[in-house]
Write a structure and sequence with these properties.
single chain; 224 residues; mainly alpha; 10 helices; 64% helix; 0% strand
């Protein structure tokens, strides 16, 4: 309760009101963040499937973490190997349960895709400062951006823009998901980040999300 008491200047009733508001705001943000994560990863999967197929790789690239075409292998092989291992463990658990509807079913790309965390995608995208820090790796990111990942976003988007949008939102999502206090966060900026990301990936989903957005009203209702 310490951050809430500090914000409420020691007033316990106000601090509890802030705590309750923090729960509601976090839940509302998670609705939008979960949508952004699913939309982004599905769009990237679609275009990486096509890119892998035309670069002597597997169309179902998620099921072949040890056979990714370059430079995707240098950027994402370890991430995908970890996701594949988790998907295999989940399959073993399903197969051990006689009543599970997917018992005995083959592993799918979706099984693996769902095991790639939101915070692992931003590493695929080039960003300006990385050109000085590690130009070789950033060159791999830029090649992949030019050939594949840019197609998941609007033509006006840049790799640097997408990298930092995903970076900020994955960090914020972790704070929210771990029930941290977000009273001191720049919540309006994070809301803008979510909507900008959605608009760059799928304008129709962006419009739908704005019509179901609960965050804006909650920001206006924050207890004093």
């Amino acid at each position: 309760m310490r951050p809430y008491l500090a914000s409420a200047e020691g007033h316990h009733k106000r601090a509890l009101a802030l705590y309750r508001w923090n729960m509601g705001a976090s839940a509302a943000f998670l609705e939008l963040l979960s949508l952004a994560e699913v939309v982004v990863r599905n769009a990237l999967d679609e275009h990486l499937c096509q890119w892998c197929r035309t670069n002597d790789g597997y169309h179902d690239w998620l099921l072949h973490p040890d056979d990714l075409p370059a430079p995707l292998d240098k950027l994402f092989a370890s991430v995908l190997q970890g996701a594949y291992a988790k998907a295999e463990a989940a399959k073993l658990d399903r197969d051990a349960r006689p009543d599970h509807p997917r018992r005995g079913s083959s592993l799918t790309g979706g099984d693996v895709l769902s095991q790639v965390t939101f915070g692992q995608w931003h590493g695929l995208f080039p960003w300006d400062d990385a050109q000085q820090i590690d130009p070789t790796t950033n060159g791999y990111r830029r090649q992949l951006w030019d050939e594949a990942t840019n197609k998941a976003f609007a033509p006006a988007a840049s790799g640097d823009q997408v990298h930092w949008l995903l970076f900020r939102l994955s960090y914020f999502r972790n704070r929210v998901a771990h029930h941290e206090c977000i009273l001191d966060g720049n919540l309006k900026n994070r809301l803008d980040d979510v909507f900008l990301l959605l608009s760059l990936v799928d304008p129709a989903v962006h419009v739908w999300a704005t019509s179901h957005n609960r965050v804006t009203q909650l920001l206006k209702e924050r207890p004093k």
